Amino acid sequence: MADFRYENKTVIITGGSRGIGKGCAQEFVRAGAKVVLCSNDRAEGDRTCADLKALALRQGAGDASFVYCDVRKTEEIENLIQTAYSRHQKIDCLINNAGWHPPHKPIDDFSIEEFRDLIDLNLISVFAACKFALPYLRQVRGNIINIASLVAAMGQLHATTYVATKGAVAAFTKALAIDEAANGVRVNSVSPGNIYTPLWQEAIDAAADPAQCRADGEAAQVMGRMGTIEEVGRLCLFIAAEATFTTGVDHRISGGAELGYGRKSRT
Ligand SMILES: NC(=O)c1ccc[n+]([C@@H]2O[C@H](COP(=O)([O-])OP(=O)(O)OC[C@H]3O[C@@H](n4cnc5c(N)ncnc54)[C@H](O)[C@@H]3O)[C@@H](O)[C@H]2O)c1
């Protein structure tokens, strides 16, 4: 039975051409939403969009369109929001997902410039998209979902820059939730643990022992596997469609990676 529980809602998803963003786009289109996805990869964005349009046509509900946008460029984010609004005359939900995890290394090997660039990509882009979308979200009492990370709460080996950006996303989400409650806009974050995506596959491919890297990634969860992009998409859809008394909350989706004691010291 079709479940169009987000029918005719407009949803903007940054970094929607692959990985978690694509999982969100699929689940929202399945729920009947009109998804506007962006990415800095035009070919991949067009491909994903064509698949989603075909899905919408098959089920007779939902829609998808693609806007090229490099979220490091403020004017391109502004264009994304305005284009989505002109296409659908409203914006119900914004999912800030685009982001990157640089290869692991100690602080000594990260330059200040690398850190600044990552802040632009993972954090300033989120602030800018919220700022430009909020005037429209307030009109319909919509909601924002910012993709943070489990490591924002746990820390991670040789990932100081990434963890700092994701911690900031989670903290920013709570502050914005306070401000926007008066306007009826809910603001939540989602913190995934290990989700199998092209970004994760790149890390596997770059590892000295790829099979071991994948096995370690799977074994980091008490559930013994990585999460799927569809599972993250379904959590985001629940937050947008059903969790109407929930704001300022960081929603973990981690397969229990943070549970229990384990061997942590390397000595
Ligand atoms: N995969 C995981 O295990 C995991 C865990 C925690 C958090 N996250 C976060 O989830 C988000 C998505 O991760 P993923 O694993 O799906 O990554 P991914 O690399 O597979 O996909 C990233 C998406 O973002 C887009 N993107 C990247 N840079 C961009 C830019 N400058 N402008 C516009 N779009 C851009 C890419 O085109 C792609 O569509 C990221 O914010 C990541 O930090 C991922």
Can you give keywords for this protein?
binds nicotinamide-adenine-dinucleotide; seven-stranded parallel sheet; alpha/beta; Rossmann fold; 267 residues; single chain
The gist of it:
With 267 residues, the chain is α/β, with parallel strands linked by helices. It contains 9 helices and 7 strands, in the order E-H-E-H-E-H-E-H-E-H-H-E-H-H-H-E.
Description:
The chain has 267 residues and is α/β, with parallel strands linked by helices. 49% of the residues lie in helices and 14% in strands. The protein has 9 helices and 7 strands. Strand 4, helix 4 (112-140) and strand 5 (143-147) form a beta-alpha-beta unit. The termini are far apart. Helix 1 crosses helix 9 (229-241), helix 3 runs parallel beside helix 4 and helix 4 (112-140) packs parallel to helix 6 (160-181). The protein has a 7-stranded parallel β-sheet, sandwiched between helices. It has helices at 19-30, 42-59, 74-88, 112-140, 151-154, 160-181, 198-206, 210-219, 229-241; strands at 10-14, 34-39, 63-68, 93-96, 143-147, 186-192, 250-253. The model has no long low-confidence stretch (mean pLDDT 97). The chain has 2 domains: 10-192 and 230-249, Rossmann fold (3-Layer(aba) Sandwich), CATH 3.40.50.720; 196-226, no CATH class. The structure holds nicotinamide-adenine-dinucleotide. The site of nicotinamide-adenine-dinucleotide has 29 residues, from helix 1 and helix 7.
